[in-house]
Amino acid sequence: MKRTFLFLAALATLTCGWSQNLSKNEAKSLQAFINQPAAKGGNNGQALGFAGGNVASLPGITISDGHVTEIKWDNKELAGSLDLTNFPSLQKIDVSGNKLTSLTIVSPTVVEINASKNRLTSVGLDCQQLMVLKLNRNRLPEINITGTPLLKKLNIASNQIVDLDVNNAINLTYLNCMSNNLEELTVSNCQALKTLYAGYNDLTGMTLEGLSKLENLNIQGNRVQKLYIQELPSLVTLACNDNHMTEMAINNCKALNDIFAPYNDLTSFTVTDVPTLAFVNLEWNDLTYVDLSNLSFLQRVNLSNNQLQTLDVSFDPMLTHLNVSYNVNLTDLRTVGDTQLRQIVGEWSNFDSPENF
């Protein structure tokens, strides 16, 4: 019995010692970080609940074969600069919801980084396998993704970026850069891009060439005055409200389903070769003439609060709801062939004219 006890004790000691093994370079980097002051007093180690001793026992880190593979330190009131240079086995990092000001990561294996909701003013990345990067709600004046060639999803919303160039990011499928200070946005030849959220910036225009897979485009709350969109075969939804836009034309977007463009200054609006268009909201503009006729899938149209004189929605067999309220000059409303039309909101002077129905 005594021999068995001694054997088990030795085995436990050996296992414990093995589990605490960590490369010197990684241990040094982690020690440097936990020694920095935390956001609410004490140091980062104390904020993590670290009692001291071997840094390999730090809460929130996963170690395999002597190397850190994952760091999960979200919402811990951490602060300062985090340098994860030369972490050869690191795969996933979550340091969101802290007060970090600087982040450097050099790792050939990391695939996902979440550093959102911090106070980052600088980020340096050399992560050749990185696929998901979340840096939203920080204070970044710029971002460089040239060291992340496999990046698929990028969220940098709510920063202070003025110029963003992701040109030729051929694997990028999702980009959220809303609520920055963007004056320039380059997304040409992002061949895999499906979703682009670029609202609430200072953009006056943008080029969408080569975005053959783009499905969702949001540029609301910018300064785009004239918008011409054509030959985006996968585009489904378009939101471009609150731009003070005066002209808008859409051509040959065969998958487009929803146009949301209220609160502009539109005097010209045209759509051609958009056979799947179902929902159109153009309220609060300055349009006098709109032609939305012969659209087989059109279902709902809101054109309230314009300057309409003529509206043609004839031969739209699926149209059910039409809002033309507060268009006091509307005298010509064409609804011939609209067999499913159930509701017209608004008053107009020729409502009972039989040739319109």
Question: Can you summarize this structure?
Answer:
With 357 residues, this protein is mainly β. It has helices at residues 2-19, 24-34, 44-47; strands spanning 61-64, 67-72, 79-85, 92-94, 99-106, 112-114, 122-126, 132-134, 153-155, 163-165, 174-176, 184-186, 195-197, 216-218, 226-230, 237-239, 247-251, 258-260, 268-272, 279-281, 289-291, 300-302, 310-312, 321-323, 332-334, 343-345. The protein starts with a helix and ends in a 12-residue tail after the last strand.
Number of strands: 26
Shape, principal axes of CA atoms: elongated
Supply the CATH superfamily name.
Answer: Ribonuclease Inhibitor
The helix count comes to 3
Question: In terms of structural class, how would the helical and strand content be classed?
Answer: mainly beta
Strand content: 25-35%
Mean pLDDT: 92
Residue share in helix: under 10%
Distance between the termini: 99 Å
Largest sheet: 15 strands, mixed
Q: What is the count of distinct domains?
A: 1
What is the fold-level CATH name, i.e. the topology?
A: Leucine-rich repeat, LRR (right-handed beta-alpha superhelix)
Q: Give the uncertain stretches in residue-range form.
A: 1-19
Strand and helix order: HHHEEEEEEEEEEEEEEEEEEEEEEEEEE
State the strand order across the main sheet. 1-2-4-6-8-9-11-13-14-16-18-20-22-24-26
State Rg.
28 Å
Keywords: Leucine-rich repeat, Repeat
GO molecular function, one term: signaling adaptor activity
Protein name: Leucine-rich repeat domain-containing protein
